[in-house]
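Quick review question:
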């Protein structure tokens, strides 16, 4: 399939199972093309291609964070620092609720950041959350070095 054919197929596939009363979803990733594609095919209502490790969150992202009720991170919790994790709960304030983190490495820096907002971390043990495979040895080494 071409990229256009794939995005048409995914838009139709995901659109067929999307509920009219679905909670709004927004995505944040340093890879702007990743979240832009997810928005294009209907997985996200808003997409933010921002790297909070190198620049402050945009005003639009902070406005979106004020509406957040659930933050889910899959596979990237041990790469970024509190520079990435701090702005969202700061913007959301008391309105922000549950967080779900699937961490391939140490979660302690994230937990310490969230503790500063009075948030408690509970570990889901012994449950395992399946993640994608590494793209190759270079990505595996990079992830293991963090």
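Suggested answer, residue by residue:
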């Amino acid at each position: 399939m071409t990229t256009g054919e794939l995005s048409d197929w995914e838009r139709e596939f995901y659109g067929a199972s999307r509920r009219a009363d679905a909670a709004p979803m927004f995505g944040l990733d340093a890879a702007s093309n990743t979240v832009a594609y997810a928005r294009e095919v209907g997985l996200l209502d808003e997409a933010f291609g921002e790297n909070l490790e190198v620049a402050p969150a945009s005003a639009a992202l902070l406005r979106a964070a004020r509406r957040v009720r659930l933050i889910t991170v899959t596979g990237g919790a041990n790469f970024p620092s509190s520079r990435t994790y701090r702005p969202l709960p700061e913007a959301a304030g008391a309105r922000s609720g549950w967080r779900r983190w699937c961490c391939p490495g140490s979660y302690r820096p994230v937990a310490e950041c969230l503790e500063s907002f009075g948030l408690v971390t509970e570990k889901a043990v012994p449950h395992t959350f399946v993640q994608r495979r590494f793209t190759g040895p270079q990505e595996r080494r990079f992830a293991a070095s963090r």
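Why it works: The longest helix spans residues 3-17. The mean pLDDT is 79.
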